[in-house]
Amino acid sequence: MSQNRLNQINGIPRIGDQAPDFNSPTTHGDLQFSEYNKDSWVIFFAHPADFTPVCTTELVEFAKNKSYFDQKNTKLIGVSIDSVHAHLAWVQNVKQNSGVLLDFPIIADLDQSVAQKYGLLHPGESATAAVRAVFIIDPKQTIRAIIYYPLNVGRNIDEVKRVLTALQTADEFKVALPVNWVEGEKVVVPPPKTLAEVGVHDNKDYERTDFYLLKKDLN
Q1: Signed CA dihedral, 180, 57, 34, 18: sign only
Q2: Structurally, what CATH architecture does the domain formed by 174-216 represent?
Q3: Where are the domains of the chain?
Q4: How deeply is 9 buried, as exposed, middle or buried, from its count of CB atoms within 10 A (0-12, 13-18, 19+)?
Q5: 187 and 176 Cβ atoms separated by less than 8 Å
Q6: Residue 100 among the catalytic residues
Q7: pLDDT score recorded for residue 9
Q8: Do the Cβ atoms of 110 and 81 come closer than 8 Å?
Q9: Which of 132, 162, 176, 193 could make an S-S bridge to 149, C-beta 3.0–4.6 Å?
Q10: pTM summary value
């Protein structure tokens, strides 16, 4: 049995795994996740509950940044263990109080099937509410990054955007990204694998710390 399949059975999908598929009711109607994820990146995120303060601030911030994600060919989708009716009432309440429409699907996961597939229930934190998880999934439906937060700490949407952009940059230019990297800064050149490559790197316009740590501009 493949490691990917074992991970899904154990409810712990990992980076590099295929994103578990599901069909669930959402605020945008029934949704087949593999179709939603087709040909685009997806930010799939879990929140503990509707009508709660921290979750409200988070989803409002995701919604405010939707145009950024659209530019990055990235769709948003949320999930919690609440009903569609609760989601719809919350969306309307948020719009009334903040003027912001949560214009992306929110999955109603009352039977916890999605939470189980994505390992969102951490009994030490809560047996009935999903933790604050973020999965960044590429167009090949591969999980590329996972970020977990506890129930009492809101996530950093700027960091989610930074990681998404870093992954897309790494894929496009075949580079790595250094600590605290943000779009427009220098990237890390893959280290040489042979003596010949060391010489080639020496002759290029790179910022050199040592033979194994070289940076360059993408411009």
Answers
A1: positive
A2: 2-Layer Sandwich (3.30)
A3: 3-154, 174-216
A4: exposed
A5: yes
A6: no
A7: 47
A8: yes
A9: 132
A10: 0.91
